[in-house]
Amino acid sequence: MPDYTPKALIPDCKLFSGYKPCLPYKTCEGCPDPQPFGKKILIINLDNIGAVLMNTAQLPMIKKQWPESTIFWLTQRASKPVLQNNPYLDAIYEWNDETRLILRQMHFDIVLNGDKNRNSSAFTNELSAEIKRGFGLNHNGAVIPLNAGAEYNFHLGTHDYEKFRINKRTGQDILAETWEIPCERSPYVLELSEEEKQQTEEWRSKLGLEGARFVVGLNVGCSSLYPLKRLKASQQAAIVEGIATLCEGVKIILLGGGSEDAERAEQIAGLSGGKAIVTPMNLGLRTGIVLENLADVVISGDSLGMHIAIALRKYVIAWFGLSCAAEIDLYDNGVKLVRDLPCAPCWKKSCELPQGPICVNEFDINAIVEAVVRYYRRQDARRAAQGEVQNHEESGEVLV
Fold first, then answer.
1. 337: number of Cβ within 10 Å
2. Distances, alpha carbon 110 to alpha carbons 43, 94, 146, in Å
3. Cα–Cα distance between 260 and 339 in angstroms, integer?
4. 162 & 227 share domain
5. Is residue 117 part of a domain?
6. What's the count of helices (H) and strands (E) in the chain, helices before strands?
7. Vertex 60, ends 54 and 65: CA angle to 5°?
8. Cα(32)–Cα(374) distance, integer angstroms
9. Banded pLDDT at 389 (limits 50, 70, 90)
10. CATH code of the domain containing 341
11. How many structural domains does the chain have?
């Protein structure tokens, strides 16, 4: 910081930029509604769009613990759309040279790093802050916990058996402990704008979904890092055919993002005899969220599509092979279908077994169809008993 102390008024206000008024002709002197920063909190979370969305569940408790606060979130460009319109965030910073230059000059009360990677951890070390929680980097370039609350999270990362077989805690619970904030099972925070809500209804009309008894969304893709998080196109087509046969009046939409998912969706639609509607997959992530909002129930592997469905409060049918089902919280609004296999979870990008990835190849797709049918029948029962007290939806974990 420069030694010179300006004579001009430099207010403690979120709206003060130093180069123009917050409103035309408005001055800071005598301002009737300043917005003090309170506690300045920086969240660092770069890795994985789905994880960024899941970690928004921490925001209500952060704000509850520090009501007078300003919350900044630093993330990769690809993840910024899931943070847009978030009422808890004052600013979203993109991970790039310019932003890092600015953040190094700022002082924070609290820095919360949720990433166990070297770039986030090294940057956390560089920042000026009273409190740092999560992960930093030691003199050997290794990621280390910065506080007592981060010890369990760190331990799971270095002990596969405990992460894969012993741990039953959700990712939200573990991260809350890492950041030393209470865990009250707060939901994800994903807010659609009024314009996006209107777009949802416009797409409902464009895709011919208005007369459907309910809409099933099938997420056809997953991250290219873990291709075994998705079923084969033939399996997904069989799911479409099963649902279409057993659930009269139900419309099925295929969801995804990017050209690869679009090609797969067309293949699935063809294999299933046109029983599913292919939604646009090249209009950006926010439009993808709007399209997923059309569904009443979403079928997905452990992927971004699943996290979006959870955030939108959809009924979720999630299947798990190589990843850890225990770490995902469906908030009592869905069912997790888990293979009981000695080799899973494994988190491998490719399978080394001679018979190939049995978590995918031998997955019983009838379990997915049956879960949809049960949901369908409950919805029919609800319609038949309008005004009566209804039971909770089926939820939990099922071994298949």
1. 23
2. 9, 19, 12
3. 27
4. no
5. yes
6. 15, 14
7. 130
8. 57
9. very low
10. 3.40.50.2000
11. 2
* Domain end call among 178, 209, 239: 178
Separation between Cα atoms, residue 271 and residue 267, nearest integer Å = 6
What is the C-alpha to C-alpha distance for residues 281 and 94, in angstroms, rounded to an integer? 24
Residue numbers of the domain that contains 277:
198-399
In tens, the pLDDT along 307-339 reads 999 999 999 999 999 999 999 999 999 999 998
> Is 32 part of any domain?
no
Shared-domain flag, residues 60 and 140: yes
Question: CB neighbours (10 Å) of residue 174?
Answer: 18
Report pLDDT for 387: 55
* Pair type for strands 135-137 and 143-145: antiparallel
CA distance 244 to 362: 22
What is the 3-state secondary structure of 237-262? HHHHHHHHHHCCCCEEEEECCCHHHH
**Contact between residue 103 and residue 42 where contact means Cβ atoms under 8 Å apart:** yes
Nearest to 202 by CA among 267, 143, 260, 280: 280
User: Within this chain, do residues 129 and 253 fall inside the same structural domain, yes or no?
Assistant: no
Cβ neighbours of residue 247 under 8 Å, at least 6 residues apart? 213, 216, 372, 373, 376
| CB of 64 closer than 8 Å to CB of 179 | no
For residue 33, being part of any structural domain is answered with no
Same domain, 329 and 208: yes
Please tell me whether residue 320 adopts helix, strand or coil conformation.
strand
Both 263 and 333 in a single domain? yes
pLDDT tens, residue by residue, 234-276: 999 999 999 999 999 999 999 999 999 999 999 999 999 999 9
Same domain, 163 and 80: yes
CB-based contacts of 177: which residues, under 8 Å, 6+ apart?
A: 149, 152, 153, 183
Is 215 in the same domain as 154? no
In-domain check, residue 22? no
Shared domain check, 45 and 150: yes
Tokens read off for 68 = 């007078």
The pTM score is 0.94
15 pLDDT more than 70: yes
Q: Which residue's entry shows tokens 């809500």?
A: 197
